[in-house]
Design a protein that fits this description.
Length: about 400
């Protein structure tokens, strides 16, 4: 169970999206930065361990247990660095079993995680159902299903998949899963207090579990307009010193909404290699009217173009924000926001559609999102204000 819990949280916080034209990009200015490559010394113990695992697998290519451990290690690295190339390395490690019908449960779980990362959510759900048919006690499969269903805008179904965790995982993990799902419905105030009490009682919880709980608490508090509490949770999560792209992105968005661009700039200026962080740094620099902004937009466009060439849909939402807030092209932003809404339905995705519909003067385009808000009962002061503006715009 300990090793399962160690990997249990690899899948819980991701959701970044972006896109552009499908033609290759050629920079016009030598100052345009397309990507900064990181350097890891071969003396780094983690790198040395990875090399040993790869060499051992090459010598024993039928070692399923080792291949699965190596695949999860690549996924960890990919999440920390926001580098999708590691997804390919993870898949390659499991090549002998990848296309079996069915693959072993451990391989199905990795495949589901990679499909989730690539925004193939329905493929991920199918694989997770396969895992649970073989192993109904697999806590990570239940957790990942709950996360995917939340991303798809189905909080009630997500909650149902959290319930087995109350007997299969730690109390804080189970409560956070359920609280995340319930907080997307009409019970945000009560859920917030319940999860907060659970966190206060969970003295033995791992740092990774605490980080997720704190991030969910910050999300709920933000939606409720409780900014002081949200900031407190974000800062406590950051003090855990676990690199987490979702946490940094969410906190940056929180600060941007309050006009605190200077703090976003300080937070991200030395950590903008991941696309979600570069986008938020550019949004901060727009608020600050810095000369560096022109050197942020071009790399973002290039990255989104490259993503489209790979056939990826993971960047739709972020590109919509680029079009809306940095390029001032609301019609294009609305199309991208609606395309993104067809793939995933979280509060941030709903907000993007509502903002784009207002900017494009096409209030009716937001009707699917407004219907979803009624269906779920989601409480969000920002979305409520946008909904009121759309009503007045008709």
């Amino acid at each position: 169970m300990r090793s399962a819990r160690r990997t249990l949280l690899l899948t819980i916080l991701s959701a970044f999206s972006l896109q552009v034209s499908a033609s290759p990009f050629t920079p016009k200015d030598d100052a345009d930065v397309l990507e900064r490559l990181t350097y890891q010394s071969i003396a780094d113990p983690s790198v040395a361990k990875l090399r040993r695992m790869r060499a051992e697998l090459a010598a024993t290519p039928d070692n399923l247990e080792l291949a699965v451990r190596l695949a999860w290690r690549y996924i960890e690295i990919g999440r920390a660095q926001a580098d999708p190339r590691n997804e390919g390395y993870a898949q390659a490690a499991l090549r002998p079993w990848w296309h079996l019908d069915p693959p072993p449960a451990a391989v199905l779980l990795v495949r589901a995680t990679l499909r989730q990362s690539r925004h193939d959510f329905h493929g991920a759900l199918a694989d997770l159902s396969g895992v649970l048919r073989m192993q109904s006690h697999n806590a990570q499969a239940w957790l990942t299903r709950a996360v995917v269903l939340s991303v798809l805008g189905e909080p009630r179904d997500a909650l149902g998949n959290c319930m087995p965790l109350f007997r299969l995982a730690s109390p804080l993990l189970a409560t956070t899963c359920a609280g995340n799902a319930m907080g997307l419905g009409g019970q945000a105030e009560a859920v917030y207090e319940w999860l907060l009490r659970s966190l206060e009682r969970s003295h033995g919880a791992s740092a990774r579990e605490r980080l997720w709980a704190l991030t969910v608490l910050a999300d709920i508090a933000t939606r409720l307009g409780r900014h002081a509490e949200a900031e407190s949770h974000y800062r406590e999560a950051l003090r855990l010193e676990l690199r987490d792209i979702y946490l940094l992105s969410a906190y940056a968005d929180f600060l941007l909404d309050q006009g605190r661009a200077e703090e976003v700039y300080a937070l991200l200026r030395d950590d903008s290699r991941p696309d979600p962080l570069l986008l938020r740094l550019a949004l901060a620099e727009k608020q600050l009217s810095t000369p560096e902004l022109k050197h942020r937009v071009t790399p973002l466009q290039a990255r989104f173009a490259a993503s489209r060439l790979r056939g990826s849909e993971r960047h739709l939402g972020s590109e919509a924000r680029l079009e809306l807030h940095l390029l001032n092209r609301p019609q294009r932003a609305l199309k991208l926001a609606l395309d993104n809404w067809a793939v995933q339905r979280e509060p941030v995705d709903a907000r993007l559609v509502l903002e784009s519909a207002l900017a494009a003067d096409k209030a009716a385009a937001a009707d699917p999102v407004l219907a979803w808000l009624i269906k779920t009962g989601l409480e969000d002061v920002r979305l409520a204000a946008l909904r009121e503006r759309l009503t007045q715009a008709r």
